[in-house]
Structure formats: structure tokens, C-alpha cells
User: Fold this.
Amino acid sequence: MEEFDKRKRKTHAMAKITYVEHGGTEHTVEVASGLTVMEGARDNNIPGIEADCGGACACSTCHVYIHPDWVEKVPAKDDMEEDMLDFAFEPDPARSRLTCQIKVTDELDGLVVQMPEKQI
Ligand code: FES
Assistant:
């Protein structure tokens, strides 16, 4: 029952997120609030986000560049994410984020993220 309630809570709100591959191919999907931006990509089989560590902020292979219009709207990164981003491929201090550290909320409806040329 608790499991059911948790699922219900997760699925009642959705945010539309657009993942843009390095080559420009766009994937727009609905992601449930409470999941991470990485989980949204993984669950929808979107290529370009590998997430080797499964979301533990320990691999940097879920790296993306946040679209400039969204940089200010995404909650700030913590020190652990900041450190791990040093291991990402060509990180951009202003726009790079690890998608496993960004929780989807209603406020992120419309978010656009761009994948790097490669992960690591
Ligand atoms: S999935 Fe490994 S750091 Fe995000």
C-alpha cells in the first residue's frame, strides 16, 4: 500500500522535458515529479545520458548543459556535484549539471537540456 501511495505521488504531476542530443535530435518527454532528470532520460531510452553509477553522483556520465533560458531556474548544485563535474567531458562552469542531481518538479516544466558530445 505504501508502495502504491509512493507511486501515486510520483505520477500525479508531470513536467515536459526536452533532451537535445549533441547532433541536434530532440526528445521531448513527460517526466513525473519526484524523479530526477537522469531517470527521465533513462526511463524513456534517450541516448546520450549513460548514468553509470545509477544516480549516486559518483560517475559524471549523466552530464548535460542546461539551456541558457533555464540555468537560473534549476536549483543550485551542491559541492559534491560541483566536484564530480570536474570529471565530466568539457564541463561549462555556467551550464553544466549532473542530471541525477536535479529533481523534477512542476517548476521545471519545459526544461531543455543539451547533451555533451560524449560522456567522459
Ligand atoms: S548518474 Fe552517476 S553522477 Fe549522475
About this structure: Residues 38, 51-53, 55-62, 84, 98, 100 surround FE2/S2 (inorganic) cluster (CB under 6 Å). The longest strand covers residues 14-20. The chain has three helices and five strands.
